[in-house]
Write a structure and sequence with these properties.
176 residues; NADH Oxidase; 3-stranded antiparallel β-sheet; alpha+beta; 6 helices
């Protein structure tokens, strides 16, 4: 799939997934795309865990309350290690956001579907930490996102986007 086609056709998918397993080589390709993302001051604060073993996947999904992506045959968990990169600034959020977007585009290009689940995991109930504990993630790392991966069982329709002219301009805000 062409890059622009992947960008323009990608939609968040919250439906049911087919039971077809995701081949390891596809999960590796998706994670490689994530790790190829830019990183503030090259600190490389983002790490990834693909979960495709049905028993481990069931244990991870069991701590997600309310449930999300229950039928996905695989998921990629996004980890971050917050650290100062430059002039007392941490770029971990930008780092993992770039990695996630690269992976969402790779997922689309390979014919799979996904959704960026973050707020649900990082809220005060600390679901991300519960998932991290199942996966043996060290305490100094935070599980900030999960991307379910699988073939969609339903059609995908994203929200309608505002027109280009209402969100993008040349040479100044609101300029034609």
């Amino acid at each position: 799939m062409d890059t622009m086609q992947a960008i323009l056709s990608r939609k968040s998918y919250r439906g049911t997934y087919l039971k077809d397993p995701v081949p390891r080589e596809d999960l590796v390709a998706i994670m490689e795309a994530g790790l190829a993302a830019p990183s503030g001051c090259n600190k490389q604060t983002t790490s990834l865990i693909a979960v495709d073993d049905p028993r481990i996947l069931a244990r991870v999904k069991a701590v997600i309350d309310p449930p999300k992506a229950e039928t996905a045959p695989a998921m990629i968990c996004v980890l971050t290690k917050r650290m100062i990169a430059y002039r007392n600034r941490c770029y971990a959020t930008q780092d993992y956001a770039a990695a996630i977007e690269n992976m969402l585009l790779a997922i689309e290009a390979l014919g799979y579907a996904s959704c960026w689940y973050e707020g649900h995991l990082t809220d005060t109930d600390r679901i991300g930490r519960k998932m991290a504990d199942v996966l043996g993630v060290p305490q100094d790392m935070e599980l900030v996102c999960m991307l379910p991966v699988g073939r969609p069982a339903e059609s995908r329709k994203g929200p309608e986007k505002l027109p280009f002219s209402e969100r993008a301009w040349f040479n100044g805000y609101g300029q034609a």
